[in-house]
Amino acid sequence: MRKAMIVWGGWPGHDPDLCASMIRGWLKAEGFEVQIEITTAAFADPAIHDLSLIIPIYTMSKIEKAEALNLCAAVRSGVGLAGHHGGMCDAFRDSVDYQFLCGGQWVAHPGNIIDYRVDLTRPDDPIMKGLKSFEHRSEQYYMHVDPANEVLATTTFSGEHAPWIEGVVMPVVWKKRYGAGRVFYSSLGHRAYELDVPEIRTLMTRGMLWAARE
């Protein structure tokens, strides 16, 4: 049985406890044994190198250097990493090691909760296959991203809330390699209920399965 670890905490506005519970259920349904941790100290445990998948849900907050380096080493050795929204890519803002691992960092969501479109760029990728571009109402994440990411979906900023970014095409969903490990990220899912949007739940489940080490 493959083993996954969810580490949740940080800013409560992203419903980290509820998201952890939902994702735990999805992974158990896929045959994973899932452990839940609530402190970043879990990332420093040598035992994480034996896991199949790690899911951080830890908006903002801080991570100790040793914790970040052990997490990076685990993924580099083949452990998968997957996550969503601020729980993964607005976490540990002062850790460049962690940002290099994830492939992106949140910097703004102009207009806060707005209507926007998610456009699939790789509809034939197994993670996105059968899905279609869709409208969504939430935070439209503006991010600093790694050009090495393999982008699966994007969104385009209208400029209504920040005129200087009109027409900017921003990655929403990506996957990447980090050493021998696979990393998956979706910027969707500001609140826990959004994870039950069919498109979001599907791409998140497939993305986690893709990232997980066999």
TrEMBL record:
Q: What's the name of the protein?
A: ThuA domain-containing protein
Q: What SUPFAM superfamilies would the database entry show?
A: Class I glutamine amidotransferase-like (SSF52317)
One Pfam match:
ThuA
The record lists the organism as Bradyrhizobium denitrificans
- Going by the entry's taxonomy, the superkingdom of the source organism is recorded as Bacteria
Q: Can you give the residue ranges of the ThuA-like domain?
A: 3-211
The residue stretches assigned to a coiled coil in this entry are: none
